[in-house]
Amino acid sequence: MKAKITIVGLGAGNEDQLSLGIYKKLKNSKHIYLRTKVHPVVSFLDEEGIQYQTFDELYDQHSEYDHVYQEIARILLGEAKKGNDLIYGVPGHPMVAEKSVQYLLEQHDSNIEIELLGGESFLDAVFSSLKIDPIEGFLFLNGETLKRDDIQPSKHMIIGQVYDQWIASDVKLTLMEIYPDDWPVIIASNLGMKGKERLKEVPLYELDRNPNEFHHLSSIFIRKTDSPDVHHSQFSKLVEIINQLRMPNGCPWDRAQTHQSIRKNLLEETYELLETIDQLDIEHMQEELGDVLLQVMLHSQMASEEGYFHIYDVIKQLNDKLVRRHPHVFGNENAERAEEALVHWEKMKEKEREEKGIEKIRSVLDGIPKDLPEILKAYKLQSKAAKVGFDWSDIRDVYQKIDEEIEEIRHADQADLQAEVGDLLFAVINLSRFLKVDPEAALAMTNRKFIKRFQYIEKQLKEKQMDIYEASLDVMDQLWNEAKTLGKGD
Fold first, then answer.
1. Residue 286: its H or E element
2. Looking at residue 488, what is its pLDDT?
3. Nearest Cα to 348, choosing from 313, 316, 387, 321?
4. What CA–CA distance (Å, rounded) separates 156 from 224?
5. Residue 303 in contact with residue 333, Cβ under 8 Å?
């Protein structure tokens, strides 16, 4: 005959919340275990002469609560395997925030029967004490494992397992990623215990400055909100806004756009972002990243309207690709250096093509977008050719090639000059590749330097009340050298 563990909920308050059935089981059982003695029902059990054992000593033996719950499950299963039927009593309801119960359900074998008998749960007390209806939208979260992505401001949230000031501090920092620092939150204690309930509202930044408020019966409550101060940091709100812009009652300009009409915008916004990166302008980089994201959102919204894909399909495909192409992170492969990681990426990329039935690349040079800027395209062409050994073996050969191209320009006919200058540029880009210098970034740096120095010339001429169109080259050259000396543009 199977041994049986009956898990009973003792409710969130005193003995008035005990069902008659649970009371009878407690009264008639010889083997009763309680997770903790710290519960208002326990004094009633004492008055009734009901004998029990508790696991309170385990809390002193383990530094982490999870270890306590695992040990409780191990002990109870061990007793059941001896053939003893037993009762395990937990606060509230057995299936609400009771990790020890979860371990019992996961680890028991077919020779042990588990029965669950619910009492009034902590959540029942929450709904009554805070006067909220969960049908409006409700989340019950664990303070010990709370992450930003768990938080949904459009729903009421109760954050449990906030046992101490340190967990409260972690919860506060996570909430501050979404809510303003002074957002009102409620510290709720002893819910369901008549005469002992406590609700204290504090601004978020003060949450962990109330150490005496946190113990095993405390939690944090945040009411749902529609405030833009909160929702405008949510990706779901961005999706909603983009959709609204494209609706019949949305923005006429946004509604009129197509993939082709805003194609150039993506390129322009990307270059504006690159400029902030090159200038290490972090403040404006945030804004320009948003502008690039806007283009991604608009294209995705249009595709959704056409029935092709949604932004969440884009995100899923990207996540799948990142996991698949990083087997050294998410799988069993190893990569200590960047070059090794790149090899895994390329191997997985080729495997994907084979699985999709895509014809093998006919040329080593295939796969380079035709609309890339020509400097970047030349760099990629050279890099792809180098992978199969078509490359100079010594940098001195590259310098020699540049000298040859310059000499050919000197002797070229007018009709051949464009081709010869192109050859020279191609050779210089090859040199940058050998030197591991990004030619696009290098030229961008030089352009910025030129702009700053030339603008210095303009400023100095204006101060001297000289017309730049009438200034001699000698004067401008002198000011240019002055700009260099002063570090204008570095």
1. helix 282-305
2. 65
3. 321
4. 4
5. no
DSSP-assigned beta bridge partners for residue 343: none
Q: 34 in helix, strand or coil?
A: strand
Of 327, 387, 321, 313, the residue nearest 352 (C-alpha): 321
Q: Which of 282, 269, 275 lies closest to 441, judged by CA?
A: 275
Task: Give 261-270 pLDDT, tens digit per residue.
Answer: 999 999 899 9
Answer yes or no: are the C-beta atoms of 454 and 479 closer than 8 Å. Answer: no
How many Cβ atoms sit within 10 Å of the Cβ of residue 249?
6
Q: What percent of the chain is modeled with pLDDT above 90?
A: 68
8 Å CB contact between 302 and 255: no
Q: What stretches in the chain show pLDDT beneath 50?
A: none
Look at residue 110 in the predicted model and tell me its pLDDT: 87
pLDDT at residue 332, as a whole number = 87
In the chain, the amino acid numbered 181 is: D
> How would DSSP label each residue in 416-447?
GHHHHHHHHHHHHHHHHHHTT--HHHHHHHHH
Strands 198-203 and 138-142, by their bridges, are unpaired
Within 10 angstroms of residue 254's Cβ, the number of other Cβ atoms is 15
Rounded Cα distance between 406 and 424, Å, is: 7
- Give the pLDDT score at 360: 60
Strands of the sheet containing 184-189, edge to edge, are 138-142, 156-160, 218-222, 184-189, 198-203
Residues 417 and 409 sit within 8 Å (Cβ to Cβ):
yes
**Distance between CA 126 and CA 193 in Å, rounded?**
11
11 beta partners:
92
C-alpha distance from residue 66 to each of 59, 164, 286, 318, 456 (Å): 10, 15, 40, 34, 66
